[in-house]
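Work Package 4 report. The design task specified in the project plan requires that, given a folded chain encoded as structure tokens, an amino acid be chosen for each position. We show below one input record used in the internal validation round.
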């Protein structure tokens, strides 16, 4: 679709939307309109900070993963000097997809087409038949193309495709106070347990934003059966009592959901883990989230445009309730279609049995075949 057609269609769509907004409604076609989707890719995903990986996925020098910002393939890696980098996943010679596997460890990346080789810091170091084919080649001009910006926050790796992007710190703004609870609340921080789960859903990415940042209305009707059989720590009535759950809107597209009068122990965290929280977190964090008189342990949050966290719990056997922290990315594939990526984060200080049971609680509920994830999808 050419740009002028896109702009024309979008202009007409926006005019219709503005008319609808006057009546207090949003037309549902914005969730699968091709012209609007193309504009979202250009105006949102190519200009905002997008989460791509967790540092624990690339622990060692040479480790890499391949991730996506809509349809842009990106190699996220740690080079031989331990520096985190992000490069577009194509050979600079003929544009062939360079890295064929989704993860691994490599000192060099070699193109499968003509054999050009690049160090894991992006430098071009090998060109077959270089003198015969190219004469004097300035290799420095043919290094891998780095993503314009890459930065981290407590182990979370973000990229931005916009050359003129604001800093990640400025982008997150005051929300860093809340994101701290989902990214590092103990001295050693989190690590990813296992590879990400991936699956395709016939749904628009904006629906997940709304659901994760503020919708508890669906919980009682949608997840009623899970609560009735005793897997979910809440009861259906918990979602019918006014004020039981409340949220904090930081700015457009960002929100925090918590349960009032709820402590981390109520979500399955043992006392020894809470002691780690109390030792590491700032006085301000403890006053908001660990004050026994006004506790409101955060359960869900969403970082615009497509990163979500879910801190929930489930009974895995008998009366053993286990907490889990799911990190979720909703990658747009097109109008009305996304690919869900899900990781489980567990505190590094936790013993192995805790990590395994936390993963089990996640798989039972919100894993790709989990009971509550089936409800939601």
């Amino acid at each position: 679709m050419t740009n002028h057609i896109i702009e024309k269609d979008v202009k007409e769509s926006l005019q219709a939307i503005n008319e609808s907004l006057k009546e207090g409604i949003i037309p549902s076609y914005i969730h699968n309109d091709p012209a609007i989707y193309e504009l979202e890719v250009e105006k949102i995903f190519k200009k905002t900070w997008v989460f791509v990986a967790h540092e624990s996925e690339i622990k060692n020098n040479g480790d890499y993963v391949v991730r996506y910002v809509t349809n842009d393939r990106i190699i996220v890696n740690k080079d031989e000097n331990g520096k985190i980098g992000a490069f577009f996943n194509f050979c600079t010679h003929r544009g062939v997809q360079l890295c064929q596997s989704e993860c691994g460890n490599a000192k060099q990346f070699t193109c499968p087409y003509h054999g050009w080789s690049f160090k894991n810091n992006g430098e071009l170091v090998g060109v077959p038949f270089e003198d015969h084919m190219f004469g004097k080649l300035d290799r420095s001009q043919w290094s891998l193309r780095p993503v314009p910006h890459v930065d981290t926050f407590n182990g979370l790796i973000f990229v931005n495709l916009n050359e003129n992007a604001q800093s990640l710190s400025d982008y997150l703004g005051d929300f860093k106070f809340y994101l701290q609870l989902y990214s590092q609340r103990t001295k050693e921080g989190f690590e990813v347990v296992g590879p990400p789960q991936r699956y395709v859903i016939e749904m628009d990415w904006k629906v997940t934003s709304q659901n994760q940042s503020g919708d508890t209305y669906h919980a009682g009707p949608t997840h009623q059966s899970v609560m009735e059989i005793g897997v979910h720590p809440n009861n259906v009535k918990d979602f019918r009592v006014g004020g039981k759950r409340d949220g904090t809107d930081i700015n457009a597209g960002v929100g925090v959901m918590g349960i009032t009068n709820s402590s981390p122990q109520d979500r399955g965290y043992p006392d020894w883990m809470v002691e780690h929280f109390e030792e590491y977190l700032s006085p301000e964090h403890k006053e908001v989230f660990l004050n026994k008189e006004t506790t409101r342990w955060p359960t869900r949050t969403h970082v615009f445009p497509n990163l979500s966290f879910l801190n929930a719990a489930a009974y895995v056997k008998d009366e053993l309730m286990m907490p889990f922290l799911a990190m979720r990315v909703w990658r747009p594939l097109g109008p009305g279609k996304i690919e869900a990526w899900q990781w489980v984060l567990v505190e590094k200080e936790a013993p192995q049995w805790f990590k395994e049971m936390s993963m089990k609680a996640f798989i039972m509920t919100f894993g790709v075949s989990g009971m509550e994830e089936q409800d939601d999808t």
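The first strand starts at residue 50 and ends at 54. Validation will be extended to a larger panel in the next phase.
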